[in-house]
Specification:
binds pyridoxal-5'-phosphate; 17 helices; 5-stranded antiparallel beta sheet; globular; 7-stranded mixed beta sheet; 2 domains; alpha/beta; 447 residues; Aspartate Aminotransferase, domain 1; Aspartate Aminotransferase, domain 2; 16 strands
Length: 447
């Protein structure tokens, strides 16, 4: 290790607490420091080049180093580095992005509120929902439903929504009023039912919980189309439509958290549109700018927008809501997606190829289940051929470290690895990614 990077690690240890990290354990070897990146590859400070099978954190959809996005950011910085959207003001890229998001799908969602992250997009949705029901004269509707294994972020409201005990327990959350219903994680349940019947059982339990809580006390239901950080849980056929129907039946607002699935990852611009979910609210972040600049967006229906506006002064928003540089980055990112026909590429070409390669690993002795929807996949890991259910055993991080040794980054989560690369990954890179995954799995199985 050269002295510059050694001292960087020492400074990191002395002054930086990393998110979602065992900080003390990490500092025994020092943090991974990524120095530069191009396309689907990142290079660390030792010069080791790795194929990024997680697109940063499910976000660098158009790949690293894209000139068009960088130039749009620079041009916007030169022209107008910042101006708020508070107090009757805004900027051109902010307005144009709100229109663009509408034109990309889910036309019932006419208006957008901007923020800076996926957590804030959900946090904004929560406040909009509370305000909406007050303005509608239904102040009793305050409870919020979300599902076990869901991940909606880390701000206080978003943590309350998140159905992963590892995220809520350290903070003594959730607070009252946040209600959990079962997420359709068939593999983890160990249920003998078929996935479809298990999905129906989850829906029955959800309806029982709604009735028990009192339907007219429930304000909204939040759901990711595919539960990402909870384990890439792909819903069984019919389940999501059933969930949507339940919300409609009881007059509950349906919020689709598309922070990961938005912008092409599952082969459609918005998964909610492809799966006909017709949400009342959609939350976006990550792929909206391919991660080049932070940006969150909460899209709401015309009814919600009209109701909110009827309340007069809207006392919510961040200094950087609708930041012109972030919005310029998003516009350039979306223009690039359109120019390169990224969504059809994921849907018809690289997505099916990636699925085929990932699902083939089901036959590996260390794999208990393989799940995939276009460029979002997961492999459940076996311990010497045995299924493990305790998430703290942590086979995922162990295998992810082995895969990294063999040249690729995947995400270790509980007892699985998640793989979700840049959307413009080539077939040859997909081959390379799965060669690294296979080598990591082989080493794990041999251990
Ligand atoms: C579905 C979903 N919602 C919300 C979030 C939170 O986004 P952020 O980390 O940008 O706050 C994430 C992050 O992974 C996510 O996957």
């Amino acid at each position: 290790m050269n002295t510059v990077t050694a001292s960087l690690r020492a400074i990191d240890k002395a002054h930086h607490i990393h998110p979602f990290t065992h900080n003390d354990a990490m500092h025994e070897n020092g943090a991974y420091i990524i120095d530069h990146a191009e396309g689907s590859y990142v290079t660390d400070d030792h010069g080791v080049r790795l194929l990024d099978g997680l697109a940063g954190l499910w976000c660098v959809n158009m790949g690293y180093g894209r000139r068009e996005i960088i130039d749009a950011i620079s041009a916007q910085l030169e022209k107008l580095c910042y101006y708020p959207s508070f107090f009757n003001s805004t900027t051109e890229p902010t307005i144009l992005l709100a229109e663009k998001l509408h034109s990309l799908g889910l036309p019932r969602l006419t208006h957008t509120l901007f923020s800076n992250s996926g957590s804030e997009a959900n946090e904004t949705a929560l406040k909009v929902i509370l305000s909406y029901w007050l303005l509608k004269g239904q102040p009793r509707r305050t409870k919020i439903i979300s599902r076990t294994y869901s991940y909606h972020g880390v701000t206080l409201g978003a943590t309350n929504l998140t159905g992963l005990v590892s995220c809520t327990k350290p903070f003594g959350l959730p607070t009252s009023g946040f209600v959990r219903v079962p997420g359709p994680y068939h593999y983890a349940s160990g249920s003998a039912l078929s996935p479809e019947d298990f999905g129906k059982k989850c829906l029955e339990e959800t309806e029982t919980i709604i009735k028990c809580e009192g339907p007219d006390s429930i304000a909204a239901l939040f759901a990711e189309p595919i539960q990402g950080a909870g384990g890439v849980i792909i819903p069984p056929a019919g389940y999501l439509q059933g969930l949507r129907e339940l919300a409609r039946k009881y007059g509950i607002l349906y919020v689709s958290d598309e922070v990961i699935t938005g912008f092409g990852r599952t082969g459609s611009m918005y998964a909610s549109e492809a799966w006909d979910l017709d949400p009342d609210i959609q939350c976006l972040a990550k792929g909206i700018t391919s991660g080049y600049i932070p940006l969150g967006a909460t899209r709401v229906s015309d009814d919600i927008a009209t109701t909110l506006n009827s309340g007069g002064y809207y006392a919510n928003g961040h200094t950087y809501s609708g930041h012109p540089v972030a919005c310029a980055a998003a516009l350039a990112n979306i223009a690039l997606m359109e120019k390169e026909a990224t969504v059809p590429y994921v849907r018809d070409e690289v997505g099916p190829y990636f699925e085929q390669k990932l699902l083939a690993l089901k036959a590996h002795p260390a794999v208990g289940e393989a799940r995939c929807c276009k460029l979002m996949g997961a492999l459940e890991l076996l311990d010497h051929g045995q299924k493990v259910t305790d998430p703290t055993i942590g086979l995922g991080p162990k295998v992810a470290a082995l895969v990294r040794k063999h040249g690729a980054i995947v995400r270790g989560l509980a007892n699985l690895i998640a793989i979700s690369p840049c959307l413009n990954i080539t077939r040859a890179e997909v081959d390379e990614l799965f060669a690294s995954a296979q080598a990591g799995l082989d080493e794990f199985a041999a251990g």
